[in-house]
Automatic annotation (TrEMBL):
Stretches assigned to the Amidase domain: 54-487
Annotated Pfam families: Amidase
Domain of life: Bacteria
Official protein name in the record: Amidase
InterPro entries documented for this protein: Amidase_CS (IPR020556), Amidase_dom (IPR023631), AS_sf (IPR036928)
Length: 508
């Protein structure tokens, strides 16, 4: 693996009382802000810190900044058992060694990931006390790898929105500007990771729900190819568009998580058969600072905004393109006019049946019997009622659904044909056409996420820098099916050359 900095000296500090609580020397502690998984693992291997200290340090930050101070309001529930889990993992490390690079690493889950020991709420008061009988498949993989689930994060209620407000969790704020929203629907996870409430987070993406909040919070987010990661045990919206994936401060952290969760067949999610044998042998080992050299990337000009506000984003992306040229990329402007004419939006036609199946999985303790009952009772934010009501009664056996679903393959074919014609390694565009929106604004028309969501193709969003008034901008790269290793490596090369990741000043 090229270019990975294993040096942890910047992460080590002294004098924090959390060390005493964890059984280490009173002079031993860790500066967790911006620390990477590799840095933390090196510190734990040296005995300079342990998982219990990390848990305490992140809990301290959550207590300081989530409901107090700037009151980011990213967290719905803290895991009361996190310290006990960390202690057991520390003891296991001492006797047997680490399970993986995630051993002892505190993580945050979007609160639509089932956890058998904590409520899984989807941000809704309806599910406030709903504890599923089993972990989500991805939750289980992360636990087996030794990750410590520190907390569950707020999301746009039932994942149907892009500003991260919910009846249970309220409004999550953007830590870079408290008057702006963090994006959504995985905005709680993104705001938490940006504010250093944990090392890495997990989100889900139906339309743009990993990449939009990553862009709005100066983070890295990946939407994997449909079928590469499991969706069983995630509170769903869409049978054919939901995917789970990581949100991280660095590309290397994202790659480490992908090495744990990708390409594993889940018997409860038939889509994972598509990803069988398609994962990289190691996403972490694929990282290469020279990976962009000699590559050809298409700039999708159709996906740049034309409004005055969009110009701030466009300027940042133009600089990013110039930086990539210096790294050896050949760019060509492209348009794909067919994108505008192919209707591949199936989400609302899949919502009711998919949601009912999830409710059935909760057994007799489910808080509502059916999607219809939930819609009729309206115990959720009225702002999402139009989405839910318009989904009621739609089915996946209608002619309209079959035609629209088949358009997904048409859309993918059009994109891949353009890439073949021009010999492109990837396609580039802004993750969002405008900077983070003001609280309660949902500019669906400004998001670019549906291109990969509707086509089933993978895409990564990486920090591209900041506007003149300090708002984060994300750059998205899309490629062919199961090209995650390439996209991650491209993102890494750009990240290492530009170093745009900057923590928010409001949560020092």
């Amino acid at each position: 693996m090229e270019g990975i900095n294993m040096c942890a000296d910047k992460a080590i500090n002294t004098g924090n009382p959390a060390a005493q609580k964890a059984g280490l020397s009173p002079s031993t502690s860790i500066q967790v802000e911006e620390a990477t998984i590799l840095q933390l693992q090196q510190a734990m291997e040296k005995g300079e810190v342990n998982s219990q200290i990390l848990v305490q340090q992140y809990v301290d930050r959550i207590q300081k900044y989530d409901k107090q101070g700037p009151a980011i309001n990213a967290i719905i529930n803290l895991n009361a058992d996190a310290m006990n889990v960390a202690k057991a993992l520390d003891e296991e490390r001492a006797t047997q060694g680490p399970r993986s690079l995630l051993h002892g690493i505190p993580i945050i889950l979007k609160d639509n990931y089932n956890t058998k020991d904590m409520p899984t709420t989807a941000g809704s008061v309806i599910f406030k006390d709903s504890i599923p009988p089993n972990d989500a498949f991805l939750t289980n993989l992360l636990r087996k790898a030794g990750a410590v689930i520190l907390a569950k994060a707020n999301l746009h209620e039932l994942s149907f929105g892009i500003s991260t407000v919910s009846s249970l969790g309220g409004q999550t704020l953007n830590p870079y500007d408290l008057e702006r929203n963090p994006g959504g629907s995985s905005g709680g996870t993104a705001a938490a990771i940006a504010a250093n409430f944990a090392v890495v987070g997990m989100g889900s993406d139906t339309g743009n729900s990993i990449r939009l909040p990553s862009a709005n919070n100066n983070l890295v987010g990946l939407r994997p190819t449909f079928g590469l990661t499991s969706r069983s045990g995630l509170v769903p919206i869409s049978k054919t568009q939901d995917v789970g994936g990581p949100i991280a401060r660095t590309v290397s952290d994202l790659a480490i998580v992908m090495d744990i969760i990708a390409g594993i067949v889940d018997p409860d999610d038939p889509s994972t058969e598509l990803g069988k044998g398609k994962r990289s042998s190691s996403y972490l080992d694929s990282l290469n600072e020279e990976s962009l050299k000699g590559k050809k990337i298409g700039i999708l000009t159709d996906f740049f905004g034309a409004s005055d506000e969009a110009q701030a984003t466009n300027e940042v992306i133009k600089v990013a393109i110039d930086d990539m040229k210096k790294l050896g990329v050949e760019f060509v402007d492209i348009t794909i006019p067919e994108i505008k004419t192919i209707d591949a939006y199936v989400v609302k036609m899949e919502f009711e049946a998919t949601f009912n199946k999830y409710l059935d999985s909760l057994g007799e303790d489910r808080p509502v019997l059916s999607f219809r009952e939930m819609v009729e009772e309206k115990q959720y934010l009225l702002s999402i009622d139009k989405h839910l009501t318009s989904s009621l009664g739609l089915t996946m056996d209608s002619t309209k659904y079959i035609e629209t679903f088949n358009n997904r393959q048409k859309l993918q074919n059009v994109i891949l044909e353009k890439m073949r014609q021009l010999n492109l390694d990837a396609i580039l565009y802004p993750t969002v056409r405008t900077p983070p929106a003001l609280i309660k604004e949902e500019r669906w028309e400004e998001t670019n996420g549906n291109l990969c969501a509707h086509s089933g193709l993978p895409a990564i969003s990486v920090p591209a820098g900041f506007t003149a008034n300090g708002l984060p901008v994300g750059l998205e790269l899309l490629a062919e099916p199961f090209a995650e290793a390439k996209l991650i490596s491209f993102g890494y090369a750009y990240e290492q050359a530009t170093r745009h990741r900057t923590p928010p000043k409001l949560t020092p």
